[in-house]
Write a structure and sequence with these properties.
single chain, alpha+beta, 2 domains, 9-stranded mixed beta sheet, 14 helices, 9 strands, about 20% strand, elongated
Length: about 375
């Protein structure tokens, strides 16, 4: 089966630049074949190397339309071994170049958060589960990039590397409390972006000062009454109310001890969420610092948008791709499989012609060659 326009498959261009880690005598299958078959298989519902191999054999005639298949379909052992050897940094850079080249303008909130690949640990080699920190463009519904957290470190070390590779101009970067670091705030501003960073106990003094300030403000102890912004959502028997207060901390500098240490800081904010399900009520208060002016509506929108990375990426990876159940762990394979899933998410999120979620679209890719081609050709925007 011949594809209508093989040159449109940008994957072949961008991922052909990934260095082949194999010695010549073991290169029985071109690396681009291994990568492209894996991408198409993951798009079509494959969650492991045995399933990737099975897809290859089932769709060999289709693959011959744009790949040189003289060497046949690689075995599942070959897929596992090659992806275990591919340099994950080079693979992720190819992913980011591909996403940047075929996506539209990235605007709005870029949410950054970490996710543990729970079954990527290997007790036999004393290897813990890996953590991937990803950047999610909420407005575009795209994974922009990812970085693995060092086994002997935490998300703070991966954040600067990931940020450095992103075009932040005009975007708002949101990070949970782990990212509330002075160096991270400075880097975002230097890259011409804005930040909304959550505060918790890891920023002890600033968190305490902000919490005490807003307590005094809400009790009427200060001669200021900022206009709150409130939203109410209903659905599935649940009512959620959110309220935001935002102020310029420099107008109350006596309440804060280290504002100048945070580059670009223009506002501190309180966001309170109240949820009611039947007779049960819960409430949570969070505090944020931001380089945005003290606009409660804008701050609340940005803070809420951050959860898109949990609801539209991490949840999808767990439910539609069964990422938490994956036992791929050989070498770099778990990290590189995470990138394959992100490629599939980016492609499938852009299609609105098929009703249902990502799982349904993966099934359609498995059944329908024309739909799979459409997904592969689609421009991300």
């Amino acid at each position: 089966m011949q594809m209508a326009d093989p040159t449109a498959l940008a994957l072949l261009d961008y991922f052909s630049e990934v260095p082949d880690p194999r010695v010549d005598r073991t290169k029985h299958h071109p690396l681009i074949n291994v990568i492209t078959i894996a991408v198409c298989a993951v798009l079509s519902g494959a969650d492991g190397w045995t399933e990737v191999e099975a897809f290859g054999y089932a769709k060999k005639a289709w693959l011959e339309g744009f790949l040189d298949m003289e060497s046949g379909i690689p075995s599942h052992d070959t897929f596992g071994r090659v992806f275990g050897q591919i340099d994950p940094g080079a693979f992720q850079e190819a992913f980011m170049r591909w996403t940047s080249a075929i996506s539209g303008v990235i605007e709005g909130v870029i949410a950054i958060d970490g996710k543990t690949l729970r079954h990527s640990y290997d007790r036999g080699e004393s290897k813990g589960a890996i953590v991937m920190v990803s950047a999610w463009a909420e407005q575009n519904h795209l994974v922009l990039g990812q970085r693995k957290v060092s086994a002997k470190s935490n998300e703070i070390t991966a954040l600067p590397e990931l940020l450095k590779m992103l075009a932040l101009n005009g975007c708002i970067v949101t990070i949970d409390a782990m990212g509330a670091q002075k160096t991270i705030a400075a880097q975002i501003v230097e890259q011409e972006g804005d930040y909304v960073l959550a505060l918790k106990g890891n920023q002890g003094r600033l968190h305490e000062e902000t919490a005490w300030f807003f307590m005094q403000l809400e009790q009427g102890a200060l001669e200021v009454e900022p206009e709150p912004w409130e939203t109410v959502d209903f659905g599935h028997g649940r009512e959620e109310r959110r309220m935001c207060l935002s102020v310029d901390p420099y107008q109350f500098s006596q309440w804060f001890s280290s504002l100048e240490a945070w580059k670009g800081l223009k506002s501190v904010s309180l966001v309170r969420s109240e949820r009611r399900i039947g007779e049960k009520r819960t409430s949570e208060t969070r505090y944020y610092i931001s380089s945005l002016p003290p606009d409660a509506e804008h701050i609340l929108m940005s803070a809420r948008s951050h959860w898109g990375i949990e609801n539209k990426l991490h949840w999808v990876l767990d439910i539609a791709f069964r990422e938490d159940d994956s036992r791929i762990r050989q070498g770099n394979a778990a990290e590189n499989m995470a990138v394959l899933r992100h490629i599939a998410v980016n492609m499938l999120k852009q299609d609105h012609s098929v009703k249902g979620g990502i799982k349904n679209k993966r099934l359609r890719c498995a059944w329908d060659d024309l739909y799979r081609e459409k997904i592969l050709y689609a421009r991300l925007n």
